[in-house]
Design goal:
This protein has 5 helices and 10 strands; from the N terminus they run αββαββααβββββαβ. By secondary structure, the protein is an alpha+beta fold.
Length: 257
């Protein structure tokens, strides 16, 4: 009987120990599981932060590149547009459109070039050549009918020598013929330019019987008359003011060779 009681007590003690330890074990297991979950959650959160940070950096870099590319594209587009406008403006300055209208016919339009830089250069070169030829004769004697540096010049002979190789049309031989030349355009006295012909009537013969060449600053070069040399004279001298009849322009972009 005592033995049975001893065994019962032992069993009770073991059962009590097992029952006492089971909740503690379960609590410990739950604590460990919770700690593992927290650790896993912390690591997951950290990974997400790193991924988000990398994505943000990549996005920022992409936006920066896109912005820079957009600015470059806009700048290039503006430059191209400005170049195009400049080219159009230059083309517009160099050419105008003229239209010919004929009754019963279709209107025809064509572009005609304005006075371009190349024409200005040609004009300046021709004017310089004429001036050099004329200035080279200063001091040489008047010679009636003369047309060359070897023999001397009369008034129209000097003009003929200066322009005969520079214009497309034939230069007449007398002052009166030059004054009525159809290829020369009339010029007002206040609009005279270097190379324009100035005409006078000194002896009452025809419309004009004397001619010189305007050289600027209100002066002209001439071969006056027998006994005098080729010289530069002022248009404002009383004698020439009284006998002045007009001026003609023989050198234009259309007439020079």
């Amino acid at each position: 009987m005592a033995r049975i009681n001893k065994i019962s007590i032992t069993l009770c003690a073991l059962l009590f120990t097992t029952l006492s330890l089971t909740p503690a074990a379960k609590a410990s297991e739950q604590a460990r599981h919770s700690a593992v979950q927290k650790t896993h959650l912390a690591k997951s959160t950290e990974r997400k932060k790193k991924t988000t940070s990398k994505t943000a950096k990549k996005k920022t870099s992409t936006q920066t590149k896109h912005t820079a590319s957009s600015k470059t594209s806009v700048k290039s587009s503006r430059t191209a547009h400005a170049t195009k406008l400049k080219a159009q403006k230059t083309a517009a300055n160099l050419a105008t459109e003229k239209c010919t209208v004929r009754k019963g016919h279709k209107t025809k339009c064509f572009k005609s070039a304005k006075l371009a830089d190349v024409h200005k250069v040609r004009m300046q070169k021709a004017q310089k050549t004429a001036m050099n030829k004329l200035m080279g004769q200063i001091g040489k004697p008047y010679r009636w009918g003369g047309t060359s540096p070897r023999t001397g010049f009369d008034c129209s002979g000097l003009v003929y020598y200066a322009y005969k190789d520079l214009v497309k049309f034939r230069i007449p031989r007398t002052a009166n013929e030059m004054y009525h030349l159809r290829d020369a355009s009339p010029v007002n006295r206040g609009e005279l330019e270097n190379g324009d012909l100035v005409f006078f009537r000194t002896q009452g013969r025809g419309t004009a019987d004397h001619v010189g060449v305007y050289v600027g600053n209100g002066k002209f070069i001439q071969s006056p008359r027998s006994g005098q040399d080729i010289q530069i004279t002022s248009l404002s001298e009383d004698y020439w003011v009284r006998h002045y009849v007009g001026a003609r322009r023989v050198m234009t972009p259309k007439t020079i060779r």
